[in-house]
Structures are given as C-alpha cells and as structure tokens.
Amino acid sequence: MAIPKLLLATRGLFFGALVLMEGMGSGPIGAQTLAQVCAPARAYESQEIPAGTVLPVRLDHGFSSKNATEGRRITGRIMQDVPLPNHDKIPQGARVLGTIVAVTNAGAKGDGSISFRFDRIEIRHHTIPVVTSLRAIAGFMEVQFAQTPEISPGFGTPYTWLTTRQIGGDEVYGVGGPVTDQWSNNVGKGVFGGVLVHVRTHPGSKCRGPMDAEDRLQALWVFSSDACGVYGMTGVTIAHAGRTGPLGEIVLTADHRDVLVRGASGLLLRVARQ
Question: Coil, strand, or helix at residue 144?
C-alpha cells in the first residue's frame, strides 16, 4: 500500500529534527533527555527554602475542634509557583503536610481551640522538612471572591485581563498588570495563578514585612501584600502564630464555639526555619 506523501514528509521532518538535536548536544539524545528529566529531582532533594519565604496554601480537607483528633494528618497544596533564590522554585501543586497537635472541644459553654503544624513540603515524592508560622487564613468563600473579577467581561475580553480584589484589599489589574494597595502604591504584579508582590506590614497588625534586606518578590496567590490575621471566619482568632515558642505550632481559638476550618480555605504560611 502506498504511504501518503504528507505522512512521508512529516516523518522526514521528525527524523531531521532528531538529527539536528543530536548534533547540537554533547551526547546522545537519550542521555540528554534523561539528564533533563532527572535534574529537577536531584535539585529537590537538596532544595533550600530560606526563612521568610511565604507559602500560599489551599487546604485539601477541613478540620474542627469538635471532632478532630490529636495526630491526625492534614494536607494542603501550594497554589502558585513560589520563587526562591538562585532561580529555584517550589512548583504549584506541591503538597504541604502537617499534623493536628492538640484539640479542645468547646462543649456547651466553652471556647474551642485547635493546634496544628505544617512541617513538610513534598515535591515529586521528595520531602523537605520546614518550620512554618501562620500569617493569614481565609475562609473558602473569601478565596472564591478574590478569584472573581470585579466586573463581568465584555465580549472578546480575555479573562486574564480583568481586575480582581485580593483578600486584604489589594487590586490586581490582570495577568502582567500591576498590583496596587489601598493607597494606590504599586506593590507587585499579577501573574498566572496569583501575584508576585513585596510583603508589607499593615498598620496596627502583628505581622511583619520583609524578613531580608533583598525584599524579594513573594507568591501570595489571592492574598494582599499586607494580609494578616483571619478573614471570613467569624469568631476565630490566631492565638499563636508559631513564630515563637513553641515554634511552628499554630493555635486557632473560637469564642463560645468550636473552631471550624473548612476545606479549600486559604492560608499564608511563612517559613521560620528549614
């Protein structure tokens, strides 16, 4: 049976490209491909995550002081590529692993509390130990609102051009556009999946701004540059953020009720130590 001319031409282009690729490299194509695939895995084994790095996380499942148990595993996902020094990054989708430390049920008239920690990051089956504190936490509805454009798109308007408002008040003028705070100061830029901004301190809050002289851009996903505390979770407060002893232990409390953290809630964790 005759082979169509188009198929022969396509095969010719394919094999020609293979020959060209082999000629450009220093070794066989197979070896180069294997090296390219394995390089990220080797890098993750020795990944260094500096103190002060912000981790934007979405919880996989909720938990509550009403029925959670000590030792229960909790997990979340990194929602945006997190840039690191030396052009490294923690990729979007990496898992953040943690544990429930202690639980106090509110009962009939008491205040509920729940302690937990996130102490491992899993990237392509490689686990990196970290110590993290909590900068901000937001309910899942707040996360949804921050991802919804402020105005409906007109016909033919790319969705990524639309303006959104971050949790905490910053405005994002689409992917590639500026991010401005409530005083119209430019604090960063919009990117696919979130924002890259300079972390700032909101007046009167207990959260800190940049933790290094470089003041590098950080990935904050749907949160504002100065986001701090609790958003959209009535009655819940951060009793202990984990920045001081016990380092890495986060405590949430609720007035006259149990603490309820729903699945798909958003968190801004900050690396205190690796």
Answer: helix
Beta bridge partners of 102: 115
Q: Which of 91, 100, 93, 77 is nearest to 49 (CA)?
A: 91
CA-to-CA distance for 230 and 200, rounded, in angstroms? 17
Supply 78's token pair. 């990194």
Is pTM beyond 0.85 here? Answer: no
Structure tokens at 11: 């095969």
SS3 at position 179? strand
Give the whole-angstrom CA distance, residue 121 versus residue 192: 22
Helix (H) or strand (E) holding 57: strand 54-59
Crossing angle between the packed helical segments 5-24 and 29-45, to the nearest 10 degrees: 60
pLDDT confidence bin for 44, thresholds 50/70/90: low
Determine the 3-state secondary structure of 247 from DSSP. Answer: coil
Rounded CA gap, 64 and 58, in Å? 16
Bridge partners of residue 122, in order along the sequence: 95, 127
Do the beta carbons of residue 175 and residue 191 sit within 8 Å?
yes
Residue position matching structure tokens 């972390």? 199
